[in-house]
Specification:
Layout: E1 2-8, H1 12-35, H2 40-60, E2 63-69, E3 76-82, E4 90-92, E5 103-104, H3 105-109, E6 126-132, H4 144-153, E7 157-164, H5 174-183, E8 188-192, E9 202-207, E10 212-214, E11 219-227, E12 233-241, E13 246-253, E14 257-265, E15 271-278, E16 292-300, E17 304-310, H6 315-325, E18 330-336, H7 359-362, E19 367-370, H8 382-395, E20 398-401, E21 423-425, E22 433-439, E23 441-443, H9 445-449, H10 459-468, E24 472-475, E25 478-481, E26 486-496, E27 499-509, E28 512-517, H11 532-546, E29 552-553, E30 557-562, E31 572-578, E32 591-596, E33 602-609, E34 616-621, E35 627-635, E36 640-648, H12 662-671, E37 675-677, H13 682-690, E38 698-703, H14 708-727
Parallel strand pairs: 3-6, 3-7, 7-8, 8-37, 10-16, 17-18, 17-19, 19-20, 20-28
Antiparallel strand pairs: 1-2, 2-38, 4-5, 9-11, 11-14, 12-13, 12-15, 15-16, 21-25, 22-24, 23-26, 26-27, 27-28, 29-30, 30-31, 31-34, 32-33, 32-35, 33-34, 35-36
């Protein structure tokens, strides 16, 4: 409805001056016309003068045209209720007798967003009831958007009722939307759902199962538990696999904090399995639907290709060759550069006659052991060192440095392999250091936690095993470890200006891993226990180095990704190795990965060529959903494809069991000049809305005295007046 009015802003003094001016001008005009003998032309001119003065007097009183716009429809009230996952938390008590069990927050506010609850407002207002923050993959609770969009979404909006637990984790701060609503005069009445303090609960936060495991080999599966209990307690967690295996572990749960541990599982068969971990319900626990997690894992047969290079067949080499050749998961190739022999090679089926000739042959190896060999006639060449570096850097293979008393590896430091060596050696003592009495390893803090040095099932037993291992009587002339490396073991007694001498050091180089073993006495670990520790250690080394490279592989394609246990919203680097059908690396092909999330949403990632000779293609992907992601890697040039999957760790942004945040809702109500009201006081909300004053009408003012069109009219009339005087000869 529109109401129009015309009025003056001038005072009585303005009117008096205007009237006197117009009367005086009229008298002057009449006198001038009479003196001219009542000439018609002069009469018209004087009339124009009077009109101009009259218009000026009219504008002197500041006239304006005012239009009021009032809405024809009833004002609207928006009732917005939170439908997010956190509203499933069971901590809502509403008009319940003492001792009654709490309901979920969603159930608690359900009566409040029924149309019948707001029928007392129907006569005065239109009530629109809608949910917000409906669960979507990769999305959390957003309180900003529904508040900020409400004025545009609901015409003639008079007020908002917001029912939520206040737990927002997506979008901009809701107080910014509250500021916008205050400027528009729209109050927000908030109703808080849920308890501001966390109920007694034990939650299994993560189950970090690896991508794949090997049949017959133990798989280490870490997990994290968060407790809201006021006291610590002991419990037994249960691990189950889909093929019926069950493993239990005694655990002490820390109070009001997180407890991290791991469980060992030895799968017996190959295939795709679903594993789960469950925490038994505590007597005081109120939430039990977060005590269990599941994850997929692929168990397969293993055949890792290992290349072992050595000069003299020293004891370390002989026992290492036996350990690797007897491992059913390893396909071993040995090459001896014996200075006393006329040709390289070896004596049985494990030996090859020469260093792999091309990229297609060398790229098949997952791990390469470099013994006491170097740049020499009949041994390695600069080109072969370059290829070994590329194998580690681009194709994620592993390289193990195992120097010896001959000191031949010093010549490799001047080649491209020098960048890969994780330690700095003393070139004044190339033959290393020997002693009559055995020396021993000492685990560093990092070594105590590493999977490589795990020779027993528990940490205490593992330390005891390392302390009891037979000693070594020679070690490499190591000065210090390079920056960016991990020192797992040091010499128990030998110290230099840099501290304890590092003997077992690892590093990551490019896509692959490097390990330095500073003694040649690991074969002595067999004393009294046969192969128990010696075989276990080197088997762990090979599998640790080859794990990433063998995440997913086909006949002509491999796919690996970092990190190998990606978290939600963490950038994942995809690396594909694509070969021609002939076995040569593919150059500049078109490679893509189609990734399908658990919700069914698919995304295609184009992988770009790394521009080298190794057939490496890279891309990046950011998962926004936890759970199993299906991957199809394809190449247009080779018409090959590879299907695999990876599991994204973590929990959704919206979690059940978190405390409510009523302080957020109180701040919104305070800023918008609304009210924060309890769910049991719905009548108070209805009354407050009904008592809201009608909104001020939208007013449009047209100030004629300063309008540009009026000014143009005045200038035009003055121009006509001047031209008229000139025409009749007065100028």
């Amino acid at each position: 409805m529109n109401v129009s009015q015309f009025h003056f802003l001038g005072t009585g003094w303005h009117i008096a001056v205007s009237v006197v001016g117009v009367i005086a001008t009229a008298g002057f005009c009449f006198a001038a016309w009479r003196r001219s003998g009542y000439r018609r032309s002069l009469g018209m001119l004087e009339l124009l003068r009077l009109v101009i003065v009259g218009l000026a007097a009219f504008l002197f009183n500041e006239p304006e045209w005012v239009e009021e716009f009032r809405p024809d429809e009833k004002p609207t009230v928006a009732v917005l209720w939170d439908a997010s996952t956190s509203m499933e938390t069971r901590d809502f008590l509403f008009s319940s007798p003492s001792g009654a069990q709490p309901t979920t927050r969603r159930e608690g506010i359900a009566p409040l967003h029924e149309q019948s609850a707001w029928q007392n407002l129907d006569a005065k207002m239109k009530v629109r009831i809608e949910p917000f923050a409906v669960p979507q993959p990769g999305r959390g609770s957003n309180l900003f958007d529904p508040l900020a969009e409400a004025p545009e979404k609901y015409p003639n909006l008079r007020g908002i009722v917001l029912m939520s637990d206040g737990d927002w984790n997506d979008g901009r701060p809701p107080v910014e939307a509250a500021l916008r609503l205050r400027l528009k005069g729209i109050p927000v009445f908030t109703i808080a759902a849920g308890s501001p303090t966390r109920l007694p609960d034990v939650e299994l936060l993560s189950l970090d199962a690896p991508t794949f495991g090997v049949a017959g080999k133990a798989v280490r599966i870490p997990f994290t538990i968060e407790s809201a209990m006021p006291r610590e307690y002991n419990t037994t967690v249960t691990f189950r696999s889909s093929d019926g295996d069950e493993v239990t572990k005694e655990l002490r749960i820390a109070p009001m904090g997180r407890t991290s541990d791991w469980i060992l599982w030895k799968p017996k068969a190959t295939g795709d399995f679903q594993v789960s971990l469950e925490i038994p319900k505590h007597a005081e626990e109120t939430l039990t639907d977060n005590n269990k997690l599941s994850a997929p894992i692929a168990i397969r047969e293993e055949k890792l290709k290992v290349l072992l290079l050595e000069s003299y067949p020293r004891w370390e080499y002989r026992y290492l060759r036996n350990a690797l050749s007897r491992d059913p998961g390893i396909d071993l190739s040995c090459l001896l550069f014996h200075p006393g022999l006329t040709k390289v090679g070896g004596g049985n089926k494990d030996y090859i006659k020469q260093f792999p000739a091309g990229l297609d042959e060398l790229s098949k190896f997952d791990v390469v052991f470099l013994g006491d060999v170097g740049l020499d006639d009949g041994q390695l060449t600069n080109e072969q060192c370059r290829l070994l570096k590329g194998l580690v850097e681009h194709q994620a293979s592993g390289l193990v440095f195992m120097p010896g008393i001959q000191g031949r590896q010093f010549s490799l430091l001047d080649t491209e392999l020098g960048d890969l060596c994780p330690v700095v050696l003393d070139d004044t003592q190339q033959s290393g250091w020997g002693s009559r009495t055995p020396s021993h390893f000492e685990l560093t803090e990092l070594g105590r936690r590493s999977l490589l040095t795990k020779l027993a099932d528990t940490q205490d037993d593992n330390i005891e095993v390392w302390e009891g291992l037979p000693g070594f009587q020679w070690h490499a002339p190591v000065r210090r470890a390079k920056s960016g490396t991990d020192v797992l073991c040091v010499h128990k007694d030998s110290i230099n200006e840099f501290g304890r001498v590092p003997l077992l050091v690892t590093k990551t180089y490019g896509a692959g891993k490097v390990l330095f073993m500073g003694t040649d006495g690991a074969w002595r670990w067999r004393k009294g226990v046969e192969d128990k520790y010696h075989y276990r250690f080197w088997g762990q080394v090979v599998r640790w180095m080859a794990y990433q490279r063998n995440m997913a592989k086909g006949e002509t394609m491999r796919l690996y990704y970092t990190p190998d246990q990606p978290q939600m919203r963490q950038s994942v680097a995809l690396h594909a190795i694509v070969m021609e059908k002939s076995g040569e690396p593919l150059h500049n092909g078109e490679v893509s990965a189609r990734i399908t999330a658990p919700s069914g949403k698919a995304e295609t990632v184009r992988l770009s060529s790394a521009g080298d000779e190794w057939g490496v293609f890279t891309g990046r992907f950011q998962p926004v959903e936890p759970g199993k992601h299906q991957v199809i890697l394809s190449c247009r040039q080779t018409d090959a494809s590879l299907e695999t999957s990876f599991y994204v760790q973590g929990v959704a942004a919206e979690r059940v069991g978190r405390p409510a945040r009523p302080e957020v809702l109180k701040e919104i109500a305070r800023v918008t000049r609304g009210e924060a009201i309890g769910p049991e006081k719905l009548e108070q909300v209805v009354k407050s809305l009904a008592e809201l004053p009608d909104p001020d009408p939208d007013i449009r003012r047209v100030q004629l005295w300063s309008h540009p069109l009026v000014a143009a009219l005045m200038v035009t009339l003055l121009g006509v007046f001047w031209v008229g005087r000139k025409t009749i000869g007065l100028i």
